Amino acid sequence: MDQPRSAAEGETLAHGRIADTAGSRAGFRAEDRFEDRFDDEDYPAYSMGAAAEMLGVSPAFLRALGVAKLIEPKRSSGGHRRYSRYQLRLAARARELVDQGTPVEAACRIIILEDQLAEALRINNARDRPAGH
Fold it and tell me: What DSSP designation does 55 have?
């Protein structure tokens, strides 16, 4: 997918990265190769239960990250939340901050700012590199 990585392009990371907020798997084109989805960090492969178990958090924590606009999971055709690996990394970072005593809303804002900074640095580094390198 070629959506921007940064929250700088949209209101939140999720809005900047995911164009299809309806989130059904039917949104993938027929020409997309099955194998490509294994490497696609934006593919919504994980259910809420699996995501919560992997991160060691409750489903309520994942919902709170959605309310705070850090991540916006896609939805399956049945309406169930589906998370990508990228979203799980953001959620893991949020958990680290919350475990250190940071309120959820503040943790989400910190992560959004960290992501914007990383994107700005990436753009600056690409601009500073000579064309052949």
Answer: H
Q: What is the pLDDT of residues 31-84, one digit of tens each?
A: 556 666 777 888 888 999 999 999 999 999 999 999 999 999 999 999 999 999
Question: Is residue 67 within 8 Å of residue 106, measured between CB atoms?
Answer: no
Radius of gyration of the chain (CA): 16
pTM score, whole prediction: 0.69
**CB under 8 Å to 96, separation ≥6 — which residues?**
none
Are 76 and 24 in contact by the 8 Å Cβ rule? The answer is yes
Task: Give every CB contact of residue 93 below 8 A, 6+ residues apart in sequence.
Answer: 107, 111, 114
